[in-house]
Amino acid sequence: MIYLGADHAGFALKEQTKTWLSEWKIEYIDCGNTIFDVDDDFPDFAFIVAQNVAKSPENKGILTCQSAAGMVIAANKVKGIRAVTAFDERSAEHSRTHNDANILALSGEWLKEDEAKEILKIWLETPFSNEERHIRRLSKIEQFENTNLK
Q1: pTM here?
Q2: CATH code linked to domain 2-145
């Protein structure tokens, strides 16, 4: 399942993302905000999406805010989340093949609509490489998450 979340600065892009996902026949759940509210806060939506994504390895999330940075910072506080932001096709592909990213954050202000659409499409279509070196690195992240060193 794909979980979506956005604050006011990413609201329009989230709504457009829903259109694209529907066109591509990809199911999604909108975790909010469901209305444009200039006073909302991005962590509220990042946490809801991240908690849902973390429930199953098949789940993915798409977050949108002004820069995408805040959403990534917040989402990555949830165990099992590997949230990234991408500003071009190459970074989107790399985040999936090397890092098995499970949440993509997009800038609602700094990306043109056609750029966001192509980044999203590539990110959704790109599988994790399953190369030993990438598996090893992800395992180290998971091991750290499970320690008291945080």
Answers
A1: 0.96
A2: 3.40.1400.10
